[in-house]
Protein 1
Amino acid sequence: MLVECLRNWLPKFGVPVYFKNALLTTIIILGISLVARGSANIVLNPSYPESQSLRNWRSKNHAYLTKIVEEKKYLQHSTRHSMAPQEKISSVANVLTNETETKFRVKVTSKISDPQQKFWYMACDNCYKSTAAQYLWNITCNVCHAETVAKLRTKFAMTLSDGTTELEAILFGGLAEKYLSLPANDLMEKDEQNEKVDCAAINTQLYGKEFNADIRKKKVQTRYGPENQYTVFGLEEIQ
Ligand SMILES: [Zn+2]
């Protein structure tokens, strides 16, 4: 049982996890369900020295942990939180109107509609939230509190269309670099030299090509009220 693993594993890093006698209950954290006793107190991000050493350990093992997260190994024993089945293709119209599901696979063509947008931002190398620091500055992230560095991260909006309708979604990181065939450092250099990304050439090259795109839908608060935000977390050209 997962809770037994937590009971054995977390104390090695000094993370306090308390279990008392009571009926079993399910706690869902970050989309992962933990079975624990009803009266269990699981303390997240506690401000103890031991938890700082866990954060340090996480920073040191960042590359390996990122790989585990990207490969979603933690989903291998769970069917409840798995992604949409590969064969289930949604229409873009369904993605826009469906208020019960949050992950979809669509078969689409794509283009970059706004060539004036910024194609990169400076990010915490641990949690990818944006930071005001300069490139490669050492930072203590305001969001995840990791001691890490500021790195460039590619991010841009693209338009996906499947014939029913179209939607604007955000593409990040390696997927975005692959789409543009440009690393983030080149994007920053282009900006410094006042050069633009040649979106017309990219759109022409990819014109008519179809992709399987995995989209995550999330409600976010904006100054205009709640709006749906769409992020592409998987993008594969259909050969
Ligand atoms: Zn961070």
Protein 2
Amino acid sequence: MNDPFDGELTGDTAILRVRVRELESENDKLRGILAKSDLDCIYCGLPKKDMGRCYFGFPGCGRADDLMLEANDGRKPEPAK
Ligand SMILES: [Zn+2]
């Protein structure tokens, strides 16, 4: 994977780089949890059971991407109901 932060970094920049990675990781985790939850889609508003009818398509809707985030976290995504 390409690292946009490649290069020699020191001091505050190095600390910020680590912090950004932590926050990205936490954000991905939360997006995955939200996507898997029974809440309506945060992108298109459809309830979970109707995610297949999404205007953006599925995959296509952000929820599909977020489900993949959780899959990449080592856990299996639940099939759509
Ligand atoms: Zn959606």
Protein 3
Amino acid sequence: MDYETPQFYRVMQYAARADRDVVDMVSGSPDWDPPAALRDGLRAYADADPEAFQYPPSAGIRPLRKAIARRRDVPVESVIVTNGAGEANHLAMACGLAQYSGEEILLVDPVYPYYAGRANFLDAETTYVTAGPTGELNPEAVRAAASEDTAVVVVNSPNNPTGAVYDAATMRELVDVAESVDALLVSDEVYDHFDYSGRFSSALAVDSPNRVVTDAYSKTMAITGFRVGYTIIEDEALREAARTRHMLGTVTGSRPAQYAVAHALAATTPEYYAASRRRVRERIDRFTDGLDDIGAAYTDPDGGFYVMAQLPDVGGDFEAVYELIDEAGVAGMPGAASGRASARGSGSRCVPTGSGRRSTDCGRTWGEFDRKLRVQEGAGRTTEYGVRQSHDARSVSGTGRRQCRRRVADTDGIHDDADDGRTVGTDIRRDSARSRRQTRRVPRALGLITNGRSR
Ligand SMILES: Cc1ncc(COP(=O)(O)O)c(C=O)c1O
């Protein structure tokens, strides 16, 4: 596996060059509407005073931090608004490495490739704990792999790419493992609104200074382009380090985007989130029905956007994915990009978040994808996935810390009516009871296929 160089766009670049329309199931960008209130918030912002167009507090506008704190039941001080879950993960991993002894980051295989790439970027050693056949994570395997060399353990539930959802007992055990080796558990919960099992349990349910949570509105509100995420860090020293790093790395986030999210959080009913969850679940069902028709093995996800599938006679590498683009007009991601467990043998992983809408570039509908899936055949070989290696200073400067504090004391977001006390985005598990077909074992995985938009 090579996580040194960014290869995520390889598939998209190949698809863009293809001389046919291609269904994009790679990018993971939702193609459904954000909450209506989000658009209202943006419109209102356009007419705001010039001062609303200036730097927001580095840790995020107060109404948004308060809304997050209320939803997550944590002190508002513990919330740092970030540029998506990506930055939140980076802060958590980097600060965990800097604050805890040990040079190692423990990851789960199959892995969300950016964790691996980021670990390389941070010059950390990596150790992989292999998940079970359906993505389940045995905390005892994590315990066995963890040692005094471990500084950070990164987990993700609902999981990209396996679709596994870790229950309360698992999360408790994982926090316990982190405590036992004095490491930091980073729990990436970016798909928390996409739990189809009703078993999702946040790491926040376990009280411990050794755990942080990362999250974002990218998927929850279908706004991957807004770059609004957050981390919750209750340990003060770690939080200060993260704030400083955030300040020095990005200064702050986008104020209009934060405002619009805060506005949407206050005005959006739980039905929006439930409808998004149903939409993805229906697409997954449609996709897996197609997989059944062609005799593919796959994981039936308990959460998230992704399905790992092994198409008959199709490899799990980049060459296979290229061939799928050429022959079937479907772009997925190779399982090889997700780690050793996924790369074993041939296979690909598939992510059906798409819709039947037409893209601006060329038109393909989700229905057409079904057809493609049936006619697809062929494929070949692989490469890897990751980000370019570089170095990241781990030290935290006192000056930066002071600057950070000063910024936080600045004015908060405009229109405090966004902070009107209404609770939204509440219990996403309420209507998620589901009992579907049994998850099938996937010995090898193949392409990551995200949404149905075409490029
Ligand atoms: C597991 C996981 N974490 C983090 C991210 C990045 O989220 P964001 O776009 O909010 O940075 C993604 C995006 O697909 C993801 O799948």
Protein 4
Amino acid sequence: MTTTAEATTAAPIELWLELEAADPFAVFDAMRAAGVSDVRRVGVLCPTAAHVHAARASGAGAVVGVGDAHELAASAPDVVVARDELEEVLAGRWGPEGTQRRLVLLNPGPALTSDAVKRAASGADICHREPEYVELDRRIRSKLRRLAGIDEHWRVALLSGSGTAANEAALRAAVRPGRVLVVVVNGIYGERLRESARRAGIETIAVDGPWTEPIDAERVAQVVASEPRADALALVQHETTVGLLNPLAELSQLAAALDVRTVVDSISAFGVEVTPLDGIDFLTCTSNKCLHGLPGAAFVLVSPAGSRRVLDVDPTSVALDLRTYLEADTTAVPPFTPAIPALASLDVALDRVLAEGIDGRRERYAARCALLDATLERLGLEQLVAPGARSHSIRSVRLPEGVSFAALHDRLRTRGFVVYAGQGALAREIFRIACMGELELADLDRFARALEHVLGELRV
Ligand SMILES: Cc1ncc(COP(=O)(O)O)c(C=O)c1O
């Protein structure tokens, strides 16, 4: 066994193995020797089909056939390269033109995914009217129920599209004609919920609040209680605008007590933040943030009371008719052509979050945030959100005097890191660092050094 290649500025800790024995245990032995614990960070160079099978069985993140393409292709490695091309491929994998993980994405989704998740998206072609799709569809619904801790009385709508589509489908189904939607607006995504409802012809009452503070639940209760036509309350659990958590449990409980249905945008929260489903009727999320899947799949979890409400509202859209998506929960026959590659990758991504549990994933994210917080403090950078209201996946940081987001972004990018701009009125004032996805603490360590270096250059 020989090991080659390892970290460059943009690369994670990695280990490339050239296997001598066609045996998955050879991979584990080599990992142990090299002190690498995550088999998904390992690439295996395979001279024969037997080696390819062994590498696959180990769960290695990349399986590369080295040698004759005709001989190796049938064993389905990720790629086949001629031996003399190998150096070039290894360099290219992490270089600026590399196709795998060429940048460490610190934007709030789409988040970094594992190679296993990416590989799932390029699996066999599947027809959505055939048994393979039915199995995939049912597996995903069952995994989502397990993850959310809900039973068969809850329905699952699987949509193909982005999170905004899931939000719009839920909003259109939650408010009866002539009734009113109360919307919490303390960030861009609350504003978008209000706008989506308005364009669907739903009357809204907004409860506005500062973008850097959790909404005052008492105020929301007063507004809902004083409006007899209030039919639903919509809110964003985690305002991605600044990385702010709203008081989800309080808000959903108060809505339930007033017999008002609750629509919760949990798009950047579910999978990591504490999300008690009790009192929620429509919870929306996507595959590509804290669940570490690819973009393209979204879902709505619907309570029994939510399902009854859906039947009371005439659909106002064909593509976003939640009723038809909920019928598919029983039939596993989707109303429209689904984004099968995104769903196939979500299926694999869900295994990982189920294995570690939402609490386990939150702990992992908390360690990332602790590292980020310590870095920001050491560099004298001010955060926008007070510690108690911060999420486990985003930090909003004031741009230092004289430093533009564009300059900061571009210099960090050349070092392999993508940070995110502020939105709306905050666009010129802040930048955001998200720590979602398949990151390692070592990535954030390297980011901390890059940030220090780049700020040193820009501040002079
Ligand atoms: C809280 C929240 N809601 C809604 C959206 C919109 O999701 P999408 O861009 O997938 O439509 C986002 C995207 O970042 C978000 O963070």
